[in-house]
Design a protein that fits this description.
Length: about 425
């Protein structure tokens, strides 16, 4: 394989990735990745120690609730989000962090993205022809104008639209048609990996299956690899070869699709599967929801690890939990994460669950300082008296009134800037009067 510093155009596309123990080629490897936004007291760790491999030709799905870090990882793979720690390899070559310009262009060429919102991801002032052709122009992936037109027309037909649509603008299309344009824009580059960030969540239910079938068609015909990001596990089961479950920025379970749905070992995975709606209204009404409670884990002494328990099934837990997971898996008896009870029992269980959720919300509300409102008056008074504002901010921070602390600091900083400006103007006027 070509060295990253001497990589030639097209060499990354032709290269082969390392081979895993199961004999499959590893296209992308995410290794102990941390992603942090902000600095200092405002720093937020969005992803913690995430590790997984994506094999060539498969669909690897990341699932989890909103805000769990799925899109953050996807954007890190396409080099939009920088890493605080760890690395991301593509065919064994590190592509995270600072890399040579030639390698960066190769990654852009080989890794494309389909976005969640088809309306926001398309340039409203550009025609469909230019939108699809932009990558071809940037990388000059056509021999002449006739070749470019042929590629664009072929691609627009492959996604189910017509060549006459090329002269129109995105606002003239429906949501499903706009997403097809987004898919065409990605596929015309002939990528090896496509990061699909919830590509059907903004679409009508009636056309979601059409878009999924279109993506599967491209995968069969072109040997594509997908990193599919979603929160709907019923969709994920249909399209995925392997699934990674992420909770609050940490990967808690990775397994093949059938393995994960038959043996959802981590309690969070159990809760996600139990929340899948059942088409039968009577059964849905009688379903007992399972709610994940992070407090069931005691990691104070026995620290958790991400471990392969066999069957290419990875689970996050401490030694005691891993032993329990192994014992459950070795029995070979599929679990039943969805429980159907008689209507009265289900109603009672769901009522207790609702009460527990309300009690937890009430506890969190009562634990917060009552007067920590971040009132604008603190900002205004700190602006007038910035020194007292700084003192007040430090006192608020000591007593964990963080909203009030930020309000005072904001006002004090603005106040000091205002005084500095006044002082500079006064000195300038004084200097002019002396001259």
């Amino acid at each position: 394989m070509a060295n990253a510093t001497t990589i030639k155009p097209g060499s990354l596309h032709e290269a082969k990735g390392p081979i895993a123990e199961n004999g499959k080629e590893i296209l992308v490897s995410v290794k102990n990745v941390d992603i942090t936004f902000g600095k200092g007291d405002n720093a937020v760790r969005a992803v913690t120690d995430a590790s997984f491999d994506i094999y060539k030709g498969e669909t690897f799905s990341l699932v989890g609730e909103s805000g769990s870090g799925k899109t953050t990882i996807g954007r890190a793979v396409i080099r939009v989000n920088p890493l605080a720690a760890g690395e991301i390899d593509y065919k064994g070559i590190k592509i995270s962090g600072k890399i040579p310009h030639a390698l960066d262009r190769e990654v852009i060429r080989n890794v494309q993205m389909v976005f969640q919102d088809p309306a926001a991801s398309l340039n409203e002032r550009a025609t469909v022809d230019y939108i699809i052709s932009e990558g071809l122009y940037n990388f000059h992936l056509f021999e002449n104008e006739a070749d470019r037109v042929r590629k664009v027309e072929t691609m627009i037909e492959e996604v189910g639209l017509l060549p006459e649509h090329l002269t129109r603008y995105p606002h003239e299309f429906s949501g499903g048609q706009r997403q097809r344009i987004g898919i065409a824009r990605a596929m015309v580059m002939e990528p090896e990996l496509v990061v699909a960030d919830e590509p059907i969540s903004a679409l009508d239910v009636s056309i979601r299956a059409q878009v999924l079938n279109l993506m599967k068609k491209f995968q069969r015909e072109k040997g594509l690899t997908y990193l599919f990001i979603a929160h709907d596990l019923s969709v994920v089961r249909f399209i995925s070869d392997r699934i990674g479950v992420i909770y609050k920025g940490r990967i808690v379970e990775v397994a093949s699709s059938d393995e994960l749905f038959n043996f959802p070992l981590h309690p969070y995975t159990h809760s996600l599967i139990s929340a899948i709606p059942i088409p039968d209204p009577q059964l849905e009404k009688s379903k007992v929801l399972y709610t994940y409670d992070p407090s069931i884990h005691d990691y104070s002494v026995d620290k958790p690890e991400f471990v392969d328990i066999g069957h290419d099934h990875w689970v996050y837990g401490n030694k005691k939990e891993i032993e329990e997971y192994r014992a459950i898996r070795e029995k070979g008896e599929p679990l039943r994460p969805i429980t159907i009870a008689d209507p009265e029992t289900a109603a009672e269980a769901n009522r207790h669950r609702s009460e527990a959720v309300d009690a937890e919300a009430e506890r969190q509300f009562l634990d917060a300082p009552v007067h920590d409102t971040g009132s604008g008056w603190y900002t205004f008074l700190s602006f007038l008296l910035p020194i007292l504002g700084i003192i007040g901010a430090l006192l608020f921070k000591h007593f964990r009134h963080y909203r009030n602390y930020h309000a005072c600091m904001k006002g004090a900083i603005i106040g000091f800037i205002f005084l500095a400006v006044i002082l500079v103007i006064f000195l300038l006027l004084l200097l002019l009067s002396v001259i």
